[in-house]
Amino acid sequence: MITDPDTTWRPMETAPRSGTTGGCKLTTVKKLVRFYEPRWLDGAGKRKAITGGDFWALLRSKIQPLTVAQRECVFNGVTYFGEARLAKKPAVNYVYLGRIRPAADHPDGYRPNAGSIGPLTPAQAGDLISEPSYLLPFGTQNFTAMLSPITGATRVPAVERWLNHVFGLLPTPDQIVLSPITDEKVLDKLQQAAGATRLYVQMKPGASVPQQGGGVVGGAIRNAAANTNTELALEMSWSFGHGYASGSQGWKNALLQAANFVAQGDFASKAEVNMQIPEGNGLRTEIHDLFLDRVAFPTTIQVPAGQSPTEESVLQGMQEAIEKFRKQM
User: Would you call 181 helix, strand, or coil by DSSP?
Assistant: First the structure.
């Protein structure tokens, strides 16, 4: 297992691989697969496990009768389109979600030995570019692996928005969120802690904070994000001053509640918490980087030179990461 504090998708790294397939040279693309679990976020800001069956099968049944237009959702001015798919090889159900680029945002084309050839021309007039992400459910606990085969694709808040759109939850206070699967040890520590004495949170430009949860400090995070220009990153830190070194229990509880909120969300790029753990008749302080404890596994995708990754190659790479997850977690 490897962990990475960066919550954005890693840039694509390529390296030539020796050998060929069918006379075609292959390129090895290295990617990082992240793991999530859908959960309910109620109007009071409490996260609850989704019970009563297979969440992803229910999602497929919700998607099936929808028209193409009904499968579209706008988030932060960007259109996203999703659909349930059944791959032939490997034979697995997965969810495809594409970030749709408007025509004004299309890149230029490039031809080797000729240079730039002007704006990229679609195969058919009116076609747009879709930047894909794959959600591959597995196991019996509603877990899903998530991967984008390209650089800088869909962020989790946009996926959550689309899920809530499909389920018809956007007008309601209850929402579906994707909680990152985190090393259970740090989550257990948060549950055992008697309080927290320091919380540091860092967010990338344009980060979207859930509308509920986190208590008083969570509300401060929301307000700061809402009042910060989308071009700017945001850093916040709470701790007890020298005159209040011991700290009141009420504010220790508030910082701990916010730490749980941050740990189970996907809006921060870095977070550290000083938590107080009961020990004997006293307390010991432990410092944890919450996102170094998140679960992610590397994988590789084999791509014919000069071509885009295929559905088969992406899903096979994701299945390799899922097997690592099963063995180590």
Answer: coil
